[in-house]
Amino acid sequence: MLKYIGLAISVIILIINLVYFDYSDAIFSNDNKVALIGIFGSLCAIILILILIISEKINSKIKGQ
């Protein structure tokens, strides 16, 4: 259950950072650096949590056989 809460929080943070990202400025401008760090950080967290969920499902199938 805690994994899914972490996944939901990561998705919410990703959406917030996508809203704060200024699409009219250059990608690496000073205002966009914080948003980019938040976007990449939340994407990494989402990927890691999904890997954890998938590995636990695989582990339960292996132990079930």
What would your notes on this structure say?
There is one protein chain. This protein has 65 residues and is mainly alpha-helical. It has one domain. The chain has 2 helices and no strands. The chain has helices at 2-20, 30-64. The longest helix is centred in the C-terminal third of the chain and has 35 residues, at 30-64. It is elongated. It starts with a helix and ends with a helix.
Structure keywords:
single chain, 65 residues, mainly alpha, 83% helix, elongated
Quick synopsis:
This protein is mostly helical and 65 residues long. The longest helix has 35 residues.
Quickly count the helices.
Answer: 2
Shape: elongated
> What gyration radius follows from the Cα positions, in whole Å?
16 Å
Counted beta strands: 0
Question: What is the helix content?
Answer: over 70%
Q: How many domain regions?
A: 1
Largest sheet: none
Strand share of the residues? under 5%
Sheet/helix structural class? mainly alpha
> Could you tell me the mean pLDDT?
92
